[in-house]
Specification:
The chain is 34% helix and 13% strand. The chain is α+β, with helices and mostly antiparallel strands. The chain has a domain at 5-24 and 74-145.
């Protein structure tokens, strides 16, 4: 499933973003082969064949075992492609879309491409929104939003 968001200022289009619902990877025979040849740090045992690759240490924000269990129970995640250094309005928009999706799914926000400081990986929407907008405004400046 895909969504589309248009970002406008005073009715004028400024940018668009397209978050996409993605399926998480599962353990395949390559992971099993790597496990058997190279060791556990490089793959997964045959007993996990066809199961979701577990998420365990991806987040900087500590998650409880119950929260990790809920994350690992999901077979999908939302992905938002972004253009680094793009228009200010779309940069702010990406963050708000990520927060909205996390809030509506009781999910967590994580960036694998350093769209924001990785120390925030694993935050809830509420935690993320306490700093995201202010940081973006400081980076781009008020004139970028006029």
């Amino acid at each position: 499933m895909g969504l589309g968001f248009a970002y406008l200022i005073n009715g004028d289009w400024r940018a668009t973003s397209w978050p996409t619902l993605m399926t998480r990877d599962v353990v395949d025979h390559f992971y099993v082969e790597d496990y058997e040849k190279l060791g556990p740090e490089y793959g997964y045992p045959a007993s996990m064949l066809g199961k979701l690759i577990p998420v365990d240490d991806e987040f900087e924000v500590p998650l409880t075992p119950e929260e990790i269990k809920r994350v690992n129970a999901q077979d999908h995640y939302w992905f938002e492609y972004r253009n680094a250094g793009g228009r200010a309005i779309s940069s702010i928009g990406y963050g708000f879309v990520a927060a909205a999706l996390a809030e509506s799914t009781e999910g967590r926000i994580s960036s694998v491409d350093y769209a924001f400081d990785p120390k925030h990986n694993g935050e809830t929407a509420e935690q993320f929104l306490t700093w995201w907008g202010d940081e973006q405004m400081a980076f781009y400046g008020r004139k970028s939003f006029a």
